[in-house]
Amino acid sequence: MAEKYEVIINNSITLSADGMSWEYPQTDGEGSGATDENMMYREVLPERDKISLFFAQDKTEAEIREILKVRAMDECNVNFYDLREGKRLTKKMYPVSDEIKAKALINGEFFVEPFELRFIQTVPNDS
């Protein structure tokens, strides 16, 4: 069983983050507002959940390579721990990340500057 800070991409790649955050935006649609009779209406649009993974400096070359492969995907199935549901879910999402700066050290190790990799849901939740 994967840990809460791990995501599984397309049932084949596991990314272990140093930190994770969840974003559950709520957006009102154009139909929200007041009528001429001063009645208020609210049209809530379906949510598009977002998760962010934080990666620190201690990543191996293989781990950096996996992150770069995921980052290049147009879309993927992401299995992650959902804070709202209190369990793991799989959602279709696309990856977006900060610039990734990796450096090779003289002793053969790799160093990567801290960065975030975010996943944004492509199909909104049912309302």
Keywords:
127 residues, mainly beta, two-stranded antiparallel sheet, 1 helix, 43% strand
Number of helices: 1
Strand content: 35-45%
Oligomer: single chain
Instruction: Indicate the structural class.
Output: mainly beta
Count of β-strands: 11
Cα-atom Rg, whole angstroms? 19 Å
Task: Encode the helix/strand succession as letters.
Answer: EEEEEEHEEEEE
Distance between the ends: 30 Å
| Shape, per Cα inertia axes | elongated
The unreliable regions are none
The helical percent reads: under 10%
Q: Going across the major beta sheet, what is the strand order?
A: 2-1-7-8-11-6-3
Domain count, please report it.
1
Largest sheet: 7 strands, antiparallel
- Average per-residue pLDDT, rounded, comes to 85
What do these coordinates show?
The protein is mostly beta strands and 127 residues long. The strands form 3 sheets. The protein has a 7-stranded antiparallel β-sheet, with helices on one face. A two-stranded antiparallel sheet has the order 4-5. It has one helix at residues 61-71; strands at residues 6-9, 13-16, 19-23, 33-34, 40-41, 50-55, 76-82, 87-97, 102-104, 110-112, 115-121. 9% of the residues lie in helices and 43% in strands. It has one domain (6-26, 46-121). The mean pLDDT is 85. The chain has 1 helix and 11 strands, in the order E-E-E-E-E-E-H-E-E-E-E-E. Strand 9 (102-104) and strand 10 (110-112) form a beta hairpin.
